[in-house]
Inverse folding.
């Protein structure tokens, strides 16, 4: 009476073993320090103007790893820290840094004019680009990337903005791949970018 269950058990074990062997023969997914969000159903579109007055989309940078951060020029700590981190990442990447594009999207379009972004963003690295749009367009892009931002203390224009502090990373094919939490080390971020660049060779 135990033969049928025993046979099913043996077949199940054989199936598990075969699946394990097949998995071992396949390609391993790359390992990242940041959160792998490959296949995310958001962050698919971006259409803004850079601080040089040129319209930009993610497709504008095909062939490069793109990092995307939302902030504002009068941010007291998080934004300059994140841009400084990316500056160090670029230094660590050496020649590969020319295959990386850092984008800074303002969530304060009323104060962050193209001229101000052109003065602020390249201070961290001349290759970095600030992106601007109407308040309505910025709100649309922020929603597309699930970015939260809100003015605080709006008294005579002297306000701050609470906002999401993570960075998104696209691979050279223009696919959203990683979410980097605020405070990640330049070493780990540089390693993740190298992995994405290596996958595109």
């Amino acid at each position: 009476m135990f033969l049928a269950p025993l046979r099913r058990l043996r077949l199940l074990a054989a199936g598990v073993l075969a699946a394990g062997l097949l998995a071992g023969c396949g390609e391993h997914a790359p390992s990242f320090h940041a959160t792998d969000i490959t296949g995310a159903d958001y962050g698919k579109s971006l259409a803004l103007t850079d601080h040089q007055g040129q319209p930009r989309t993610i497709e504008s940078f095909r062939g490069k790893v793109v990092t995307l951060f939302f902030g504002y020029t009068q941010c007291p700590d998080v934004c300059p820290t994140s841009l400084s981190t990316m500056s160090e990442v670029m230094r660590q990447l050496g020649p590969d840094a020319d295959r990386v594009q850092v984008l800074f999207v303002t969530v304060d379009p009323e104060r962050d004019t193209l001229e101000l972004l052109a003065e602020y963003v390249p201070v961290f690295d001349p290759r970095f680009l600030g992106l601007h749009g109407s308040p309505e367009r910025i709100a649309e892009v922020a929603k597309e990337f699930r970015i939260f931002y809100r003015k605080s203390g709006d008294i005579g224009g002297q306000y701050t903005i609470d906002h999401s502090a993570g960075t998104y990373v696209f691979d050279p094919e223009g696919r959203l791949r990683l979410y980097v939490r605020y405070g990640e080390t330049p070493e780990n971020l540089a390693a993740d970018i190298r992995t994405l660049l290596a996958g595109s060779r």
